[in-house]
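Journal club side-thread
Mid-discussion, someone asked how the predicted structure for our own chain would compare to the paper's figures. Pasting it here so we can look after the session.
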Amino acid sequence: MSEILEEIELQRGSTFRNDGRIKPIKIQRRTTRISLGVLAAVGFTVILLSLTNLSFAQGNRHFGQKPYQQVSQFSGSLGEKEEKKTGAKKILGEIKPARGDSNFIGTLQPTLTAAGGDWSIPRLSGTFGHAFSFSMKIGNGVVWQQANIDWWLLWDMITYIGYDFKEFQIAHQERQPAPSPEELQSIKNQTWEEVTASIDRGIPAIAWQPMTVKQRDSGVNAYGWGLLVGYDETEKTYTVRHQNYMTEYTVPYDQFGFADSANWYCVMILAGKKPLDRMALEVRSLKHAVAFAYGTRFDLDDAPYPVDALGFAAYELWKQAVETGKMEVGFTEHAAWILWEMRENAAAYLREITDRFPKVSRRALFEAAVFYDEEIKAIMKLVNVCKEHKSFTARKRQEAAAIINAALDAEKKAIRKIEESLAALPVESK
């Protein structure tokens, strides 16, 4: 599997707070050209998640296992598939992505809500790990904090949240024969039928970078995940709402999937409910929180978005970069803003789940949330220091580094409490 480093211009989303001190930059993203067969290995549990009958390379995708032939459908209370009329149009009212740094969480939450699910943003952020993650690179630059979860680790958790998903994916690899035009069209036709049926039931679909190359080049900032909330049967277009590109727009159903170097086409459709072991899910998520902190949640060498440190080590690298003058005010402030959002979600998530735990574990989780509150106060202080200065003086660098150290201290205390909570669980719950 060959890897390439693609230089992409940073697209400033809603959470990139910038007052002009950060110039437009280019960041490096490691992308991997992969076949559908390799995609299953890279995505960990993608076989279990997809429940999709693909007409292209199905044998490779499932590595010789029997493909899933059936997907449980939503009950009648969530809406039955409608028989479409020729020329039909439909747009789902006010359904739109939720605000936040992760556009995967921002699209998943309204999708689950439309299907009758009760998932808050903090709960999803805690479940998938966004709330507990923090990464850093060596030197001066923006780190896309959510990238490795939003592109990669999501497959490791989505199978546990109580829903089945149909996925339609195509990823090109130079060393593998490309799918024929007929095969590509067949997959996108199948996607169209499933997406429009889902919209008819009142549930949007989730799509990766739902924009054409021309739209991308003209300024449609629909990077990452977006919502397909409508369709036009005559024009054969989807209506798209995206977290960063605030104007609703349409995209031809078979013309996206070419906006990044891997030419990744991915559309996810909520297909049905399945049993949810809520306690097991919370325990798994808390264990992942600890792994993020100690830098063991994933191997840095395997990450599709390259970073140099994760968890506690990322705080240390951040502090060192500020102390030595390798990180400017604007980048420090940006990292602080994103960390602020993530730890607010961490504290809220812990408070949301505490009642499900035995008394001793519950108390430890509550105390962990309090330590995250302390960390948030430190981060807020750092944001204010950065706002007041266009550049760091030597004294302000030391002050900023001390604040980062205080945030790290609170982070460590929170993680220790999460570890205490897990250790206190009955054996059958671990």
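Post-session note: Residues 394-423 form the longest helix (30 residues).
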